[in-house]
């Protein structure tokens, strides 16, 4: 990995998830492609995986599942019962 | 409470000679609200001919994207006991070997935090703990991990690798399925818990072509034990089968799919070059015949049950491979090349078998860096009007020589 830190990648990934919230389900592969397009050879797949892991472990994003797994901002599900 | 539980339609499912899940759930309905309301909601579903479950979507434990399948009742006021009814998948031990203490441990945890109902096991292989509330998920996870258990896979991730008992109890095992499942599970913890694929990816390991995990039909990657050399024959034991009146001709020779076995008196002869390792003869005469000494495994890819597309069987991509000195690097490398190519070019909810069908086997092999082999041919081609550039190149070269 070059000068791009996992923290930086996590912020970039978070921005994509936030930007698409409520409009498009963002998948891990989408973030991989977006980061590869932005940083090219400066980063690898493992770096983006680490960034996603950081977002999940911190609770800033969560995994959702409706027709495939996606990365989402924490929110209340419409289907959820009290 | 018991007199409130009127389930005439479900009661019909207790009348056959087979074990009944209704009876099992009723045995717990006396003391717990969740099983009782589960039966009541199911009875209503049978009456109305429709289901009353809502997909839970976004439930799980912190950091994990798999292992919990969320469900809510669509009628929470009527059936408050199953207002939340989430399923927890627990990663099973290799080969489903448990001590009774380990099983009690799991059940005690589930009695404390969930409905107490469970399946041993789900189709992927996990222990399936049925029915708990959202607020009980983290405490359940904590109780499980304190005892050394972990959640299994769900969603678009690597599903919990599963395997047959292999060399632990079976003389046919051609590789250590227990060890491989253990190694894959530990090496791919991220892929198991953090969904990152287009869709699910199942790996099943069977120690021999009997394929007791049904991997050839039920896993995206089937690792099936195989041997390269000859079937081993114990001549004395073979003679005993004849002496005991076993009809070798009817039950073995005539059943051999390639007709590569012949018997003269008490002598058996096998044309091993034509043997397809179907295991039939070995299964019928296990004392006389056994798998060879040069053992390894074949890798087959692409099986799935029919959901988006029709059911697919796996096809061979690696006819023979061995793990030497516990070095799994070659296997990991292959798996990761497959995942990378599928991840890059696959579509959402497209299983690897469907992906190969869409892009063609040739493209897939090129993408993952494998050479095509005759063993990869699934069926004779049915279109004769296919020509390859190589044919014309050969013809051109031939013309010059003539």
Helix content of chain B: 25-40%
Low-confidence stretches of chain B: none
Report the portion of residues of chain B in β strands.
5-15%
CATH architecture annotation of chain A = Orthogonal Bundle
Largest interface: A-B, 26 and 34 residues
Total helices of chain B: the number is: 15
CATH superfamily of chain A: Winged helix-like DNA-binding domain superfamily/Winged helix DNA-binding domain
What coarse outline of chain A follows from CA principal-axis ratios?
Answer: elongated
The overall pLDDT average of chain A reads 89
Q: How many beta-strand segments of chain A?
A: 2
List keywords for this structure.
heterodimer; A: 82 residues; mainly alpha; Arc Repressor Mutant, subunit A; two-stranded antiparallel ribbon; 3 helices; 2 strands; B: 402 residues; alpha+beta; Alpha-Beta Plaits; Sulfite Reductase Hemoprotein, domain 1; 3 domains; 5-stranded mixed sheet; 4-stranded antiparallel sheet; 15 helices; globular
Task: Describe the model.
The complex is a heterodimer of chains A (82) and B (402). Chain A has three helices and two strands; from the N terminus they run αααββ. Chain A has one domain: Arc Repressor Mutant, subunit A, CATH 1.10.10. In chain A, helix 1 packs across helix 3 and helix 2 crosses helix 3. Chain A has 82 residues and is mainly α. In chain A, strands 1-2 form a two-stranded antiparallel ribbon. With 402 residues, chain B is of the alpha+beta class. Chain B folds into three domains: 145 residues, Alpha-Beta Plaits; 149 residues, Sulfite Reductase Hemoprotein, domain 1 (2-Layer Sandwich); 59 residues, Alpha-Beta Plaits (2-Layer Sandwich), CATH 3.30.70. In chain B, a hairpin with a 2-residue loop joins strand 11 and strand 12. In chain B, helix 2 crosses helix 3 and helix 4 packs antiparallel against helix 5. Chain B is globular and about 80 Å long. The mean pLDDT of chain B is 92.
